[in-house]
Amino acid sequence: MSRALGDLQYKNPVNAVEDQNLTTRARRASSSSASVCGNFLSNDPFTSRRILQSNRRYLLVIVSDGVSDLTDDTALIQHVMKLSMRGMRANDIAQEVVSSTASRPKSDNATCVVAMLDGQYS
């Protein structure tokens, strides 16, 4: 994912389409939608802030499309929670998610980060 951040061809799809040697039909299709095209990638981060309650535990699971394209979000979170309740550490859970995803047919690059958080007292 980070490789493409510096590739200008992905930053402006209109220019990328014009630079490529496409068929006439593809050129017509892209030029008709050029006014509604935006950037494929953005280097502007999306952030949000959450206040954690001190009496709760939280789970943060970050995955690449190699995992999310093959797994339902709810099923993934339930699986991670089940492994956590069995005493598995976050790092081992992430490795298990990646291993099980990578063994499936049509798997892509799979990345998973699991963080288990406790609420903090003010």
TrEMBL record:
<dbReference type="InterPro" id="IPR001932">
    <property type="entry name" value="PPM-type_phosphatase-like_dom"/>
</dbReference>
<dbReference type="Pfam" id="PF00481">
    <property type="entry name" value="PP2C"/>
</dbReference>
<feature type="domain" description="PPM-type phosphatase">
    <location>
        <begin position="1"/>
        <end position="109"/>
    </location>
</feature>
<protein>
    <recommendedName>
        <fullName>PPM-type phosphatase domain-containing protein</fullName>
    </recommendedName>
</protein>
<dbReference type="InterPro" id="IPR036457">
    <property type="entry name" value="PPM-type-like_dom_sf"/>
</dbReference>
